[in-house]
Amino acid sequence: MPRFASRVQAAERGGQSRERPYRSPWWYRVGQALSIAASTLLVALGQSAVIAFGLLILSVFNVVLSLACRRATGIPIPRFGSAARGLVNLAGAAVFIGIAFGAHAIVEVTNAAWVAWGAALLVGAGLVAFGRVDDDFIEDWLVDRETEPARTFSSEHEAETPS
């Protein structure tokens, strides 16, 4: 039996609530929040070359952060997981892009750097708050993945399939 499903079943047998068997480490979401806040600052304040180089460095940081989380929890964080998680992540990315480029436009017009810092704080805090929702999506994905029956094709199905 896969490791995660056995932990869930052990918690249920022991009378413990199965409400939150998976939670990412605190430092994972904080690292993500710092990364997305830095990305917002780069986009809002930087020049094109600085933005490109900074986003490259932050992308490498996020890969290392995900690998460290996988090592700490023993559970890989899926790229997409369920369709609902994909849609929520897509919406979150759209909000981030809107805030970052909106802050960039305001900074360009008004030269008020505080707008970029406020946008970075807003995006970082939003990611920390969203992290727990994302953990719930990951938990559901893990349970679904480990408890769904194996998919096999019967000989009847193979006979119906045109060659």
Explain this structure.
The chain is mainly alpha-helical and 163 residues long. It has one domain. Helix content is 77%, strand content 0%. It is built from six helices and no strands. α2 (26-45) runs antiparallel to α3, α2 (26-45) packs across α5 and α4 (83-110) runs antiparallel to α5 (113-147). The model is unreliable at 1-5 and 152-157 (pLDDT under 50).
Helices and strands, with pairings:
Blueprint: H1 3-13, H2 26-45, H3 48-73, H4 83-110, H5 113-147, H6 155-160
Shape: elongated
Which regions have little confidence, pLDDT < 50, spanning 5+ residues?
1-5, 152-157
Number of domains: 1
Beta content comes to under 5%
Mean pLDDT: 78
Estimated structural class: mainly alpha
Helix content: over 70%
Number of strands: 0
- Encode the helix/strand succession as letters: HHHHHH
Distance between the termini: 37 Å
Q: What is the radius of gyration computed over CA atoms, rounded to a whole number of angstroms?
A: 21 Å
The main sheet comes to:
none
Count of helices? 6
Concise description?
This protein has one domain. It has 6 helices and no strands.
Supply database-style keywords:
single chain; 163 residues; mainly alpha; 0% strand; elongated; disordered N terminus
